Amino acid sequence: MTNVLLVTSSPRGGASYSAQVAQEFAKEIEGAKITVRDLSAHPLPHIAADFVQAAYTPDADRSPAQRQALALSDKLIAELQAADVVVVAAGMINFGVPSTLKAWIDHVARAGVTFRYGPSGPEGLLTGKKTFLLLATGGVYSSGAYAPYDHLTPYLNGVLGFLGLTDVETVLIEGVGAGPEATEKALVGARSKAASLATAFAA
Predict the structure, then answer these.
(1) SS3 category, 100
(2) pLDDT above 90 covers what percent of the chain?
(3) How many CA atoms lie within 13 A of 75 on its CB side?
(4) CA separation for the pair 42, 13 (Å, rounded)
């Protein structure tokens, strides 16, 4: 059995291209047991002062209130730690990551739990997992004049890599803002690549 954590984040819900392709992809993984974290249907609270204070208080010294402040974060991190495969679906919003997904990242990026600082610098602790990014954009940002505007792909690769998720494959669903024909072409290409990645992963 392969434990798959599927994280979706688009405010478009079921109409989201990234979520649609990601859900299809996760189901194609052989022996997949899928845990879904739908950040649009169930948005997370932004971290606040009580969270920060609790996170930087040694575990043995935390008060009951501080433990409660970290309870959701602990649950989200446990989902990540239990996963063999992490699938993240996101649409670019204003050239960057959706705020719902950023809130999730803020909850799971915790010093001493998902990363630590050692003699050689920071070390990610979520190692040994395969990660797939399914990313949708209205325009084309992988090359050309608008490539510098893509703050979604490099950010996700950077922050997930910082946590130890360095084995990453990306499926782009580009140009969906250019009309039905462009959307269909983008979806066909993305589904083809996703199917190939699922087959290769099972091999």
Answers:
(1) helix
(2) 92
(3) 8
(4) 11
Per-residue model confidence as pLDDT tens digits over 119-137: 989 999 999 999 999 999 9
Domain count, the chain: 1
Domain that holds residue 127: 2-202
> Is-contact 159 109, C-beta < 8 A?
yes
What integer best gives the mean pLDDT of the chain?
96
CATH code of the domain in which 106 resides: 3.40.50.360
pTM (predicted TM-score): 0.95
Distance CA 40, CA 34 (A): 18
Q: How far apart are CA 46 and CA 35, in angstroms?
A: 22
- Tell me the CA distances in angstroms from 171 to 116, 134, 162, one per residue in order: 29, 5, 20
pLDDT band at 171 (very low <50, low <70, confident <90, very high): very high
Element (H, E) at 91: strand 85-91
Q: Which residues 6+ apart lie within 8 Å of 8 measured at CB?
A: 16, 18, 19, 22, 23, 36, 37, 38, 39, 40, 89
Average pLDDT over residues 110-119: 95
Phi, psi (degrees; rounded to nearest 5) at 45: -70, 150
